[in-house]
Structure formats: structure tokens, C-alpha cells
């Protein structure tokens, strides 16, 4: 099994954190992992994306042009990466702020109202974990127990008290992802 994916959005949306937690989760499952972030110098508000590869085999290169899965969090990223999803692949996106929705019929498209659900849960910072939960529901390539271990590894110890909230956000995402109809 090899999963090649891109997570893309604005800086400050937790794009890089989501990728890092996914990478650590893969490591906890004794898989080969590649995590390659890309972001502009402006950080918050600028574009940010991360390429993550999780595989049972050695990874020859972290550089990808096409992806099995794309998680898209803003219009700019949708415009750039929708066409890069391999036929038969998966695109997951939060429709908040998306004006031009994906139209491809050769991929599976899912939506998750991450921003809306995070607001309902009273903490907009868990947006990325809700989206991450949607991904795990669609493609359960890592076990939830390893995601929790990944959270412990990637979060500073002073933030470990937030792990139960993050777990609740992941569960919320898993329960609310919807297959889009085109």
C-alpha cells in the first residue's frame, strides 16, 4: 500500500500540522513516510501545502506531480491541485470559501463542513482535525490509536491536554463527511 497525498490551503489553517500528524501516525504503524512542506514567506494567510507519502515500501522520492488524495481548504488550492488528483483518486474539501467546486467525474469527491463544525464545537482551531477525521473515514490508512500517538509526538507536551478535544474533532469529521454528487 502506498498513499500519495497533498494537503493544501492557507497558512494558519493547520495544513502543515495535519500533514505532520499523518506522517507521525504512519511512523507509529512502522510504515515508510515522507513529509514535504511548502509555504510562502508570509506564513499565515499565504498559501501552504504539504505532500505526504505513506507506504509499506521504500519511498524513492518525496516529489510528486499527481496524488491519490487531495485535501483542499481554499479556492486557490482547488484551482491548483484538482487536476493533479489521479483518475480514481479522492478529493476532500471544505466548501467554505470555495466558489468554483470540483467538477471531475473520474475521481471521488467528498465535502466536510470543517469550519462550520469547528465553530459549533466552540473552537475554530480544531478545523484541521475535523477535516483530518473526514479523510480517515474515507481512507482509513492509519489507525485512530496511532493518530493519537502522532498527536502526542507532534504537539508540545504543554498542549497534550488538548488531545481529547482533537480526538473529538476527528470523530466529528468522521461522522460528517459527505460524498458529493456531481
Roughly what percent helix?
25-40%
Shape descriptor reads globular
Enumerate how many helices there are, as a single number.
6
Please tally the β strands and state the result.
Answer: 7
SSE run: EHEEEHEEHHHHE
Level-2 CATH architecture: 3-Layer(aba) Sandwich
Beta-strand fraction estimate: 25-35%
The main β sheet shows up as: 7 strands, mixed
The CATH superfamily label reads: Pyruvate-ferredoxin oxidoreductase, PFOR, domain III
Low-confidence stretches: none
Number of domain modules: 1
Strand order of the largest sheet: 2-3-1-4-5-6-7
CATH topology: Pyruvate-ferredoxin Oxidoreductase, domain 3
Distance between the termini: 29 Å
Write down the Rg. 15 Å
Mean pLDDT score: 91
CATH class annotation: Alpha Beta
Specify the structural class: alpha/beta
Walk me through the structure.
It is a single chain. The chain is an alpha/beta fold. It has one domain (2-179): 3-Layer(aba) Sandwich (Pyruvate-ferredoxin Oxidoreductase, domain 3), CATH 3.40.920. The chain is built from six helices and seven strands. It has helices at 15-28, 75-81, 114-120, 127-138, 144-154, 163-176; strands spanning 2-10, 32-39, 47-55, 67-72, 85-93, 108-111, 178-179. A seven-stranded mixed β-sheet has the order 2-3-1-4-5-6-7, sandwiched between helices. Helix 1 (15-28) crosses helix 5 (144-154), helix 3 crosses helix 4 (127-138) and helix 4 (127-138) crosses helix 6. It starts with a strand and ends with a strand. The mean pLDDT is 91.
Amino acid at each position: 500500500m502506498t498513499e500519495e497525498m497533498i494537503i493544501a490551503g492557507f497558512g494558519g489553517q493547520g495544513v502543515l500540522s495535519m500533514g505532520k500528524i499523518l506522517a507521525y501516525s504512519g511512523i507509529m504503524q512502522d510504515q515508510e513516510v515522507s513529509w514535504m512542506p511548502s509555504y510562502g514567506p508570509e506564513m499565515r494567510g499565504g498559501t501552504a501545502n504539504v505532500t505526504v507519502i505513506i507506504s509499506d515500501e521504500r519511498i524513492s522520492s518525496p516529489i510528486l506531480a499527481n496524488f491519490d488524495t487531495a485535501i483542499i481548504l481554499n479556492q486557490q488550492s482547488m484551482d491548483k491541485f484538482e487536476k493533479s488528483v489521479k483518475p480514481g483518486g479522492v478529493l476532500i474539501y471544505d466548501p467554505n470559501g470555495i466558489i468554483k467546486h470540483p467538477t471531475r467525474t473520474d475521481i471521488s469527491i467528498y465535502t466536510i463542513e470543517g469550519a462550520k463544525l469547528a465553530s459549533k464545537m466552540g473552537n475554530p482551531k480544531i478545523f484541521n482535525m475535523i477535516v483530518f477525521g473526514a479523510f480517515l473515514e474515507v481512507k482509513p490508512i492509519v489507525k485512530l490509536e496511532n493518530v493519537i500517538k502522532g498527536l502526542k509526538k507532534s504537539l508540545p507536551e504543554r498542549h497534550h491536554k488538548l488531545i481529547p478535544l482533537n480526538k473529538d474533532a476527528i470523530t466529528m469529521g468522521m461522522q460528517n463527511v459527505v460524498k458529493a454528487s456531481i
